[in-house]
Amino acid sequence: MTGLGRIGRLMLIGAPFLWLALFFLLPLLIVVKISLAESKIGIPPYTPLLANGSKGLEWRGTLANYVLIATDSLYLRAYLGSIGNAALATALCLVIGYPIAYAIARSPSVRRQLLLFLVIMPFWTSFLIRVYAWIAILEPQGLLNQLLIALGLVTAPLPLLNNQFSVQLGLVYSYLPFMILPLYGSLSRLDQSLVEAAADLGARPLQAFLGVILPLTLPGIAAGSLLVLIPAAGEFVIPDLLGGPGTLMIGKVLWDEFFNNRDWPVAAAVAVVLVAALALPLLAAQRFLEREHAA
Amino acid sequence: MALLEIAGISKRFGATAAVDDVSLSIERGAFYALLGPSGCGKTTLLRMIAGLDAPDGGRIVVDGTDVTRLPPYERPVNMMFQSYALFPHMDVARNIAFGLRQERMDGRRIAARVEEMLALVQMAGYERRRPHQLSGGQRQRVALARALAKLPKLLLLDEPLAALDRRLRAETRLELIGIQQRVGITFLVVTHDQEEALSMASRVAVMNRGRLAQTGTPAEIYERPASRFVADFVGEMNLFEGELTAGFNCLALAARSLGRQVPLPPGTKLPEGGAAALAVRPEKMVLSDVRPAGFAIAAAVSSISYLGGGSMIHFTTERGMLLKAYVPGAASDHLRRGMAVWASWPLEAGVVLTQ
Ligand SMILES: Nc1ncnc2c1ncn2[C@@H]1O[C@H](COP(=O)(O)OP(=O)(O)OP(=O)(O)O)[C@@H](O)[C@H]1O
Ligand SMILES: [Mg+2]
After folding, report:
1. pLDDT one-digit tens code per residue, B135-151
2. Which of B25, B125, B181, B316 could staple B2 via S-S, CB 3.0–4.6 A?
């Protein structure tokens, strides 16, 4: 037995578990607990799960909040709206991000550093401020419309803000770096001689891409897609600031339940269902990556 | 007509001329070796033939078609990469089938060809393995099978045996010759191992610093090197540098390192006064204990290396020049370090080099 003793090893292995238990599992359990309660006026604004009744301590938990979510079509539509928007944004990020990541991975070393720096530079400014900046750009009297009118391309301002377009623009803009970085990681590890071998064996550029580059960068695609899909599906700020009356996303519903209706139990149930829904693609990706790794 | 014609091909990388005005012609069915020290431009030349690098100037003609401007996927040429470049996400069978699929060959014919190729490289039964589940030698075979599968007009092999250990390398060398004869495809093999080039190839081109130093059969390269570089790079060699002078009834070389004249092969016709070198192979050197009649150099044995079939004797002349002689069998048994010997060689065995 070298270096670390038994306890040392246990601590080393246990530390990440402890971290997850404290900062992920415990909060999640609290949310689950609230989701099983009923709303009431007071502090905290929900009923306890266990209370003193006629036969001593009684279980007062209820699945009513989940029944509400399942029966009121508002929630289903909001979930579908979120997942639809997030899926579309993920697809757009992939289509836009892949060529960018490819170009960065193939550029000479000095320029590569600069380009990577540019990709992460937006993070230097607060996310909220950047979303507000888009309002200034997109609004009827905003920069873009003024430019288009000045150039004589349009006569009246285009409706660029508070619709599906601005929500997608905001999502893609905000989450593109999360797609580019893992893709870049995959692409820069790709052995260029494999691409050359494919060309040598008669593969045209598209065939070489589909047959060799794409399959070998699937781990990067999976990682990038999850990093975009999951936060985008729970996104609240972008649909709230850039979305219009037709934008129905679950993050906004959750916010309304929590702050406007002050119905913590329903808000908590909405959150639990969202986590469960997002865990599915995560597990699928995990299994896929494990298989790739084993191969 | 030659299968491959290269005319005045050049490639620069910044300040270095990786390939500098190389012209080469390779006959159909040849087993052609490109030999040269590390960094002399062998891989670069191969990559230009395959279409992976664009030449700065010159022309490449394969089987009568100018392919200089064609992309790699349109050339009737396949390459076996120095690193093998097997696709890690495909099993052996799919690796070999990759090129055939690009041609949209019928599935049953692909399967038959894959089977044939695996049998050719003695890898039948390994169809479902992934590259990382193979040994280095097995990967090398799969890479060869993949490059051969499309039956290209010309197969380029970049250091095909470099990653193998000595024993396997010698075995695989023989197999490679056998495979080449069976499939009848023209092979262009890059190597920096002169023994490998001489033993495998029907013709050899020696490269140095991006330029072609000499082309010829292995025997021509070995017996009649055209320059000091080739003489020194291919095999062991004793080189006497000096000036051409009129000797006793024939031309001689005033060898600087010996401080005396050395007779040149009879019939050497070169102008007096020029600089030249005389090259003598160690196996042509004759060592004797007593002074022989005619020309001989006095020397002392400085080391004896036993090589199996014979011994390499290193000896030093009176002026301190180090020379070597290969003595076959047991003829060197009586030699000891420090012993005085006389070294000579049949005059016609020397080669006069002016380049
Ligand atoms: N992509 C490149 N960029 C810059 N220089 C290069 C490049 N490829 C090759 N060179 C240079 O060109 C010269 C020839 O390289 P090449 O790879 O053709 O040598 P080689 O004969 O194959 O050597 P080895 O036996 O070591 O494989 C070298 O000096 C090398 O540094
Ligand atoms: Mg090389």
Report:
1. 888 998 899 999 999 88
2. B25
